[in-house]
Amino acid sequence: MNDWQKDTLASYQSKGFAERSGYGERPALLIVDFIQGFTDPSSPLGGDFSAELAVTRQLLDAFHDHALPVAFTTIEYEPDFRDAGVFIKKVPSLAVLVRGSDMCLIDERIPPRSVDYIVSKKYASSFFGTNLDTYLKTQGVDTVVITGCTTSGCVRASAVDSLQYGYNTIVVRDGVGDRAQGPHEANLFDMDAKYADVVPGQEVLDYLDTLKVSALSESDKSFQRWWSQGN
Question: Which of 5, 175, 186, 225 could form a cystine bridge with 1, CB 3.0-4.6 A?
């Protein structure tokens, strides 16, 4: 933490900011937009998120081992972009994210399983205009652990909405990335002060080890398969 962050944090804490919300008893992993359009450095939207993907893979495996819910998000638009609204005017590079394109596919380094929920979204927040909140609530989730990209964009928007929907919100510091370090650090600092607990991936792994591994019933498995089919 640099000098300005230390000074700002001290000021925030003196005014009642930057407390810890902590974890609940039933977490879900939310992997935001780690799709090829963002993880391929040759894409106009892309960057090198190899390190963040490696951390995410560790968490993904741990959540699967504990039979806990996992949701991935992708952004995909119709070819005529009638569903892209003003967002595509602000960020014309979003035009590479056409439904059916490889750019919309989850990065192969973090492959989803059939029980995982894939969220198709149009805007920054993983919750806006999607069924994510419904899925999480039907799974009994009280804590959302977030990795993905970008820190200053879709990760931040998803973290804010996660808090607003009533979830304990955890942003994994070494599991999220941005195209530039300045926006990345500034948004991690701000989220940690106001909306989420920003923690290293190892802390989340340690937390998961305190939970009992839950054996899914056949009805649970059937429900997860139903969600994975796009409902």
Answer: 5
Q: Going residue by residue through the chain (231 aa), what tens digit of pLDDT does each one get?
A: 777 777 787 787 787 776 899 999 999 999 999 999 999 999 999 999 999 999 999 999 999 999 999 999 999 999 999 999 999 999 999 999 999 999 999 999 999 999 999 999 999 999 999 999 999 999 999 999 999 999 999 999 999 999 999 999 999 999 999 999 999 999 999 999 999 999 999 999 999 999 965 444 444 555 555 555 555
Catalytic residue among 71, 75, 154, 159: 154
Check if the beta carbon of residue 33 is closer than 8 Å to that of residue 74.
Answer: yes
What letter represents residue 222's amino acid? S
- Across the chain, where does the E strand assignment appear? 27-32, 70-75, 117-121, 143-149, 168-177, 197-199
Architecture of domain 21-228: 3-Layer(aba) Sandwich (3.40)
> What are the angstrom distances between the C-alpha of 23 and each of 168, 172, 207?
6, 13, 8
Q: Within 13 Å, how many C-alpha atoms sit on residue 203's CB side?
A: 13
User: Which residues does residue 149 pair with via DSSP β-bridges, in sequence order?
Assistant: 177
With b for 16 or more beta-carbon neighbours within 10 A and e for fewer, the 185-212 pattern comes to bebbbbbbbebbbbbebeebbebbeeee
104 is catalytic: no
Asked if residues 133 and 158 have their Cβ atoms less than 8 Å apart, the reply is no
